[in-house]
Amino acid sequence: MLVPLVDAGEEVGVVITQRASAMRHHSNDWVFPGGALDASDPSPGAGAVREASEELGISAGDFEVLGQLDSRGPIITGFVIDVFVALVDASTPWRPARGEVREVATVPLRHFVARENSFRAAIDPSHDPGPIVSGRRTDPLRTRELLHFFIRSGEHLWGLQADILAELLVHLDPKSARYLGEGRLS
Question: From first to last of its 186 residues, what are the pLDDT tens digits of the chain?
Fold first, then answer.
């Protein structure tokens, strides 16, 4: 997974994508670009850049990888998610992958640090978590309240994605984002 940052001169924004409604799992969810490694990917970081390049419709050369956040998993689907942070030029035009990405948004990081733009809530019972690893009958996160960040009215980044954003915010500005670091959420 890749967390793209855009330096817009006066402030830094984070790039998120809304998955297409036709996607089998997590349709319409706001997420960071990512996906499975290909056999041709020389490293997890290269795979994250390739996936983000495909989803956002920009050249892999447009990303400057800045570092890596904590890996997550194995999650309920059995995957381990390696998370990288990269800088993308603010003038880069997005050409989102049809059928995979419904929308690309750049949201200022300061928006997410504002306490009124986050909340905790349980997963909507109708949400499809994707294929659960054999032997696990339920998703243990369904009974816990997870962090959510508002994107705009009625839409939010939540769960694992919000946990990743919270980790980034705490790294960038521990004092302003200290309320977000009140325990790992996934």
Answer: 999 999 877 889 999 999 887 766 666 789 999 999 999 999 999 999 999 999 999 999 999 999 999 999 888 778 899 999 999 988 889 999 999 999 999 999 999 988 899 988 887 776 666 666 555 555 555 557 888 999 988 899 998 999 999 999 988 877 766 666 454 333
Round to whole Å and give the CA distance between 30 and 157: 5
Interior angle at CA 55, CA 50 and CA 56, nearest 5: 100
CA 67, 10, 93 angle in degrees (round to 5)? Answer: 70
Reduced to 3 states (helix: H, G, I; strand: E, B; else coil), residue 55 is helix
The answer, yes or no, to whether the previous bond of 174 is cis (omega within 30 of 0) is: no
Contact 77, 131 (CB under 8 A): yes
Q: Is residue 25 helix, strand or coil?
A: coil
Using DSSP's 3-state secondary structure scheme, residue 116 falls into: helix
CATH architecture of 2-181: Alpha-Beta Complex (3.90)
Q: What single-letter amino acid sits at 26?
A: H
User: Which residue do the tokens 């928006």 mark?
Assistant: 111
Are residues 14 and 4 in contact, defined by beta-carbon separation less than 8 angstroms?
A: yes
DSSP 136-156: --S-GGGGS-EEEEEEETTEE
And the tokens for 31? 């997420």
